[in-house]
Amino acid sequence: MAKKKKTKIITYVNMPGSMMTRIADVAIMANAGPEICVMSTKVVLSQMAFGYLLASHISENSTKAKKDLTDLANTIDEVLNDKGLVENIKDVAEILSTQSDIYLLGKREGYFVSQEGMIKMVEGAYIHAHALPAGDLKHYVITIVEDETPVIGLVTNDEIKKDLQSALTEVKARGATTFAITQFKDFKADHLLILPELKVLNELIALVLLQLLSYFIAKKLGHNIDKPRHIAKSVTVK
Q1: pTM
Q2: Which of 14, 53, 109, 217 has its CA 20 to 30 A from that of 46?
Q3: Helix, strand, coil percent content, the chain, rounded in steps of 5
Q4: Domain ranges of the chain
């Protein structure tokens, strides 16, 4: 429809020769490598990185953005090679693999990252997951929080720390088991997954931890991680 109205189309995709690249006036490639798993992990991360780079370029901060993204890449590498952290993620996955519902709380950028974590848990673990802004907790979800209900909070900067602590304290008082993905070692929750700290883009480190968490839950449950049931990736369908 946009093409018929002679609109300029710019696409950002990972699959060379896909329909989106063919109809675009400008096709920007993610270059994230072959897509094997139906659940997109590296591509969604690259999309967020590209969005940050594009916005920074428009605001004439591209030099800083490139450094930030280089720091991000190095930190992700550290996370993936941190055996202690990976073991902690496996321990949390063990707990969550027995649950039928998982709730994720975030604020600002952290909320959107929690939505991505929700999608991966549903796709890979086949567990009902629900992401919501921490400020919405009391409006509805808190009514179904009961003993051992797992609630995960994303706490990625000082500005939201107090609000997320308050939210997790509320659900803890109603019997929930609380988890936090955070760089703050003094944050109060039943289980902490401690992030390396960056000056910016902490949310994208949290995203990687959520993806790993979903992976280990699915693996624990014996699911086919590359090919979740009932769904297919359009670029892999023959």
Answers
A1: 0.91
A2: 217
A3: 50, 15, 35
A4: 10-65, 82-220
Query: What is the β-pairing status of strands 177-182 and 10-13?
Result: unpaired
Rounded to a whole number, what is the distance in angstroms from the first to the last CA of the chain?
A: 26
**pLDDT for position 35:** 80
Q: What CATH code would you report for 82-220?
A: 3.40.50.10490
Residue 236 pLDDT > 80: no
pLDDT in tens, 45-96: 999 999 999 999 999 999 999 999 999 999 999 999 999 999 999 999 999 9
pLDDT in tens, 160-216: 999 999 999 999 999 999 999 999 999 999 999 999 888 789 999 999 999 999 999
In the three-class reduction of DSSP (H, G, I as helix; E, B as strand; rest coil), residue 55 is classed as helix
Tokens of 236: 């892999």
Q: Is 59:144 a contact under the CB 8 Å cutoff?
A: no
Question: Would you say 153 and 168 are in contact if contact means Cβ atoms under 8 Å apart?
Answer: yes
Quote the Cα angle for 104-82-101, to 5°: 20
State both tokens at 208.
């990687």
Rounded-to-integer distance, Cα 183 and Cα 180, Å: 9
Non-local (6+) Cβ contacts of 220 within 8 A are 93, 94, 97
Which among 175, 215, 214, 213 has a CA at the least distance from the CA of 193? 213
